[in-house]
Amino acid sequence: MAEKIYTIPVNEAFDKHSECPVCTMYQKLEDDAVSFVMGPSYMEEDIRSETNEHGFCRDHMKTLLNAKNRLGLALILKTHIDEQLNQAQKEARKGIKPKSLLKKAEDAPAGVWALKKSRECYLCNKINVMFPRYIDTILHLYKKDPEFRKKYESCKGFCQEHYGLLVLKAQEKLSKEELQEFFTLTTKLYIENLKRLSDDLEWFAVKYDYRFKDEPWKNSKDAIERGVVKTNSIIASSE
């Protein structure tokens, strides 16, 4: 099947042979979103309006801090904090009632507003628009593209979160026969590669026993970095 623009990121992720190609796709989306925000776009009025409104979650703010564009981040923070200040003053004027008189959350509007806003994130929103399309594309290629099917069959499985996501999404997108085949293969990949990684981690630990210090590391040197992909969808530097 000829590649289309929406299939390229999926194929590229599976070509990397990472511990979870879906994590690789997510990481690329995240990297691109951060580069977009910290590039010239932060000077665009419509983009700044959205970052002012939604702000950033804790994890993505940490990422922006490491993006090495302190002027850009200062300007983003300045206008976002100005927006927070303006809204906080409006909400504060609505007052608050003693707990004994509360009938609904809106009786403490400033608190409701502050908690709601603290959970919003411009980057999460941007990523979450595209990511579900990538999952749909995986299933589409699995059904329609024999070359992709080979890549899927030879991948190193998936992290726990994305194994679950693929299985649940397949229930919506695949026929009864396709679903059973997909579930069997995907589960096999998941379990077999968990076992492989478990063996690598075991040997990594054994190497700390002085009796085995001269033994080869085999495939265990980066077992921790690969392990946190499988368990927590965290792509470390070696991935």
Q: Can you tell me about this structure?
A:
With 239 residues, the chain is an all-alpha fold. It has a domain of 110 residues. 68% of the residues lie in helices and 0% in strands. The protein has 11 helices and no strands. The longest helix is centred in the C-terminal third of the chain and has 31 residues. The chain is globular, with a radius of gyration of 23 Å. It starts with 7 loop residues before the first helix and ends in a 7-residue tail after the last helix. 18% of the residues are buried. The model has no long low-confidence stretch (mean pLDDT 91).
Distance between the termini: 28 Å
Unreliable stretches covering 5 or more consecutive residues? none
**How does the major sheet shape up?**
none
Question: Which word captures the global form?
Answer: globular
Task: Determine the mean pLDDT.
Answer: 91
Question: Radius of gyration from the CA trace?
Answer: 23 Å
Helix content: 55-70%
| Structural category | mainly alpha
Please provide the count of β strands: 0
The portion of residues forming beta strands comes to under 5%
The number of helical segments is 11
Order of helices and strands: HHHHHHHHHHH
